Amino acid sequence: MKALLQRVRRASVEVEGQCVGKIEQGLLVFLGLEKEDGEEALAKLISRILAYRVFADEQGRMNKSVADIAGGVLLVSQFTLAADTKKGLRPGFSTAAEPARARQLYEFALADLSNKHPVVASGEFGADMQISLLNDGPVTFLLEA
């Protein structure tokens, strides 16, 4: 599994012209799920995301987490993160979790995140989504589990 974290000043997700999720300062998290992924590893990744220090402290150093700043987390499922891009000119998706399993894991991740953090929003699994964001930095990290 892969989680692409972007530190944002704000971010939102629209589906068919309707806003389905938005946050102010915090993390936009794109989650790519693979065939071998499970709930235990996903729960650990969610805890790591919440504790990952990407926000500045009083000295300007990245020493604070999204939990420390009481920021929002916008979770968006993105199966293209699970693509195999090692060769060729077209991504392969044989490593991505099957849609039914990916939906189950995404819903688990969203529930786990909501239980651990007070400000959570989400995209819509499997939908054609339009993401708007104001990247802060830019600061972007790829976490793999």
Automatic annotation (TrEMBL):
<dbReference type="GO" id="GO:0051499">
    <property type="term" value="F:D-aminoacyl-tRNA deacylase activity"/>
</dbReference>
<comment type="subunit">
    <text>Homodimer.</text>
</comment>
<dbReference type="InterPro" id="IPR023509">
    <property type="entry name" value="DTD-like_sf"/>
</dbReference>
<keyword id="KW-0820">tRNA-binding</keyword>
<feature type="short sequence motif" description="Gly-cisPro motif, important for rejection of L-amino acids">
    <location>
        <begin position="137"/>
        <end position="138"/>
    </location>
</feature>
<keyword id="KW-0694">RNA-binding</keyword>
<keyword id="KW-0963">Cytoplasm</keyword>
<protein>
    <recommendedName>
        <fullName>D-aminoacyl-tRNA deacylase</fullName>
        <ecNumber>3.1.1.96</ecNumber>
        <ecNumber>3.1.1.-</ecNumber>
    </recommendedName>
</protein>
<comment type="similarity">
    <text>Belongs to the DTD family.</text>
</comment>
<dbReference type="InterPro" id="IPR003732">
    <property type="entry name" value="Daa-tRNA_deacyls_DTD"/>
</dbReference>
<comment type="function">
    <text>An aminoacyl-tRNA editing enzyme that deacylates mischarged D-aminoacyl-tRNAs. Also deacylates mischarged glycyl-tRNA(Ala), protecting cells against glycine mischarging by AlaRS. Acts via tRNA-based rather than protein-based catalysis; rejects L-amino acids rather than detecting D-amino acids in the active site. By recycling D-aminoacyl-tRNA to D-amino acids and free tRNA molecules, this enzyme counteracts the toxicity associated with the formation of D-aminoacyl-tRNA entities in vivo and helps enforce protein L-homochirality.</text>
</comment>
<dbReference type="Pfam" id="PF02580">
    <property type="entry name" value="Tyr_Deacylase"/>
</dbReference>
<keyword id="KW-0378">Hydrolase</keyword>
